[in-house]
Design goal:
The protein has 151 residues and is mostly helical. The chain is built from 5 helices and 5 strands; from the N terminus they run αβααβααβββ. The longest helix is centred in the N-terminal third of the chain and has 47 residues.
Amino acid sequence: MTTNPVVNELLNLAAKLRLQRAEIMHRFEKALAEHDKKIEHVEATLRMYADAKQLGEVRSARITPDDIRGMPQLKALITIAQANGGMVNSAEAKRLFLAAGLVRGNPKHAGPHIYSLLKASDRFEWVSPGTFRLVNGLSEKQPPMILVQGD
């Protein structure tokens, strides 16, 4: 029995596609299993906090615009850095400065002004673009402040 070459090619192509499908399914199942593990880890962490009744009690060090309102700009930057473990991000400082009313004039000029203030100050050293470390501020052993919500 002779077979048509076109039919042979189609049969080969169908077999090849079935094999590729099986490989894709294997990769998908593996990625899905890894994703499920990540979900389990996060849920386990949430359970630990809930079991310890700490959920909602501890949050990361955050400073509000009210905390720096009325301060000189450099003192406000130092306060922000101290609340964040000795680090300050110029974009975050801009947001706080604008909300606290520490910057007058056009808000689009606040970012470069704060960056220049940080760069020119001997109290801060450049770490990465937009991020500065407080010099002689917090030691590396001293953790950042932790704020606790009241009941």
